[in-house]
Amino acid sequence: KRYLPASIRDRFDDHETDDEEWETLQKVADHRENAVDPETYLSEAGVVAFVGESDDDGHLTDEFATVYERKLGVYRDALDERGALAGLFDAGPDAVAFQDRDYPAIAIDGRIRKWPSEAALLADLGTDAALDEWTDDWTDVPVEQRQSLRKGLRAFVEGCPACGGDLTASPETVESCCGIHQVIAVSCGDCGDRLREIDPDQEDAKLTR
């Protein structure tokens, strides 16, 4: 039997790696071309009304809030549906693998995506579906920035997405692999689901976390 020289075979062996690198470059280029300024995008789209100079002085517009609440009703029974979760990251249902954790988490496209609670996941599903209906270009925004915007919009949710209870903010100590630190936890006073965690030193980063 005759074989191709090793130098030639190596070119074929590296083909998959080259494809991955090319895909990464395409994602970077896509992000640079389609990334939006969060405050400008949400304000001009009529999603959030800002009444001051700070992100803290904003709220969901009544019209968008109505669409968001309607979408929540659709997704309350879809938290375990692969199609709904995959859609958040422009992937197919088969790409989703549920992770056995105390909080919602999935493996998708080689990354672990996680949420602090089912209420937080529900909020993201609701806002994503509402923005897709509300705007003409939501899916043009890069995937990672859409995820960031969904997280940021949790700051403007007035009630718990899961049960409708009041949300309260309180300081808590969180332990991670990197150490112990303080956060401001925004949680439901009724069901206890945590919607988001705020770094006290980065409170002004509301729309970008």
Instruction: Please count the helical segments.
Output: 7
Mean pLDDT: 81
Strand order of the largest sheet: 3-4-5
Name the shape in a single word: globular
Q: Ends: how far apart?
A: 58 Å
Which spans have pLDDT < 50 for at least 5 consecutive residues?
Answer: none
The secondary-structure class comes to alpha+beta
Describe the sheet with the most strands.
3 strands, antiparallel
Order of helices and strands: HHHEEHHEEEHHEEE
* Helix percent band: 25-40%
Strand tally is 8
Concise structural overview:
With 209 residues, the protein is of the alpha+beta class.
Outline the structure in words.
The chain is α+β, with helices and mostly antiparallel strands. It is about 40% helix and about 20% strand. It is built from seven helices and eight strands; from the N terminus they run αααββααβββααβββ. The strands form three sheets. A three-stranded antiparallel β-sheet has the order 3-4-5. It has a three-stranded antiparallel β-sheet with strand order 6-7-8. Strands 1-2 form a two-stranded antiparallel ribbon. Strand 4 and strand 5 (about 110-115) form a beta hairpin. It is globular and about 40 Å long. The mean pLDDT is about 80.
